[in-house]
Amino acid sequence: MKKLPIALACIITISLTLFSCKKDSNKSATSDNYIKGKKDGVAFNFTTNAMAKITDFSGSSGIISLNLLANGTALEGFNLGINFANGTTVQTGTFTEDNSGSDYILAGVYNPNSSTIVYAAGIQSPSAKPLTINILTKTSTEITGTFEGAFYKEDVSSGTMYPDYTLVTEGEFKLQIK
């Protein structure tokens, strides 16, 4: 399995953490946009601040970034991200954290409503369940798909990773592209 350089892993974790903690009071909850599934067997459905963002850094770094975001209450929420290398566009398909190529990397963050603890996927090796994101459809305005994986506990103030994890199964998303 390909290992990410430590600096790149830290940048991904920090950016995902910041996005997952973002609160935008101008966005109301709607069942039309969501990230839902099961955390350790318990159902969740996050609809607040639910959106997909595509950022094109291909001119400066060759990277196009996809972030899938949704919150429940307060800080609780998910942020899933795929960085496509070499200017590759966001496309349908199955993407895994244990990808041996260099065409993309992915990571995810689950914030359990904490300012110091998050659960991160895509940077733990080996993983009990590698993060997988399956993009089923993508139009100019909407993206849908599924995801699953083990999200490992991390103290964001110290950067300490723990062996404890939250297992996400049956994950789904339907999000407007903003």
What's the rounded overall pLDDT mean?
84
How many strands in all? Answer: 11
| SS-derived structural category | mainly beta
Tally of helical segments:
1
Terminus-to-terminus distance? 33 Å
Query: What general outline do the C-alpha atoms trace?
Result: globular
Question: What fraction of residues sit in β-strands?
Answer: over 45%
Radius of gyration: 15 Å
Low-confidence stretches: 1-30
Order of helices and strands: HEEEEEEEEEEE
Helix content: under 10%
Largest sheet: 11 strands, antiparallel
Indicate the topology:
Layout (H helix, E strand, L loop, with lengths): L5 H16 L12 E6 L2 E5 L1 E10 L5 E9 L5 E8 L8 E4 L7 E8 L5 E5 L10 E7 L3 E14 L4 E17 L2
Antiparallel strand pairs: 1-2, 1-11, 3-4, 4-5, 5-7, 6-9, 7-8, 8-10, 9-10, 10-11
List keywords for this structure.
eleven-stranded antiparallel β-sheet, disordered N terminus, mainly beta, 178 residues
Describe the structure.
This protein is mainly beta and 178 residues long. Helices cover 9% and strands 52% of the residues. It is built from one helix and eleven strands, in the order H-E-E-E-E-E-E-E-E-E-E-E. A hairpin with a 3-residue loop joins strand 9 (132-138) and strand 10 (142-155). The protein is globular. The chain starts with 5 loop residues before the first helix and ends with a strand. The model is unreliable at 1-30 (pLDDT under 50).
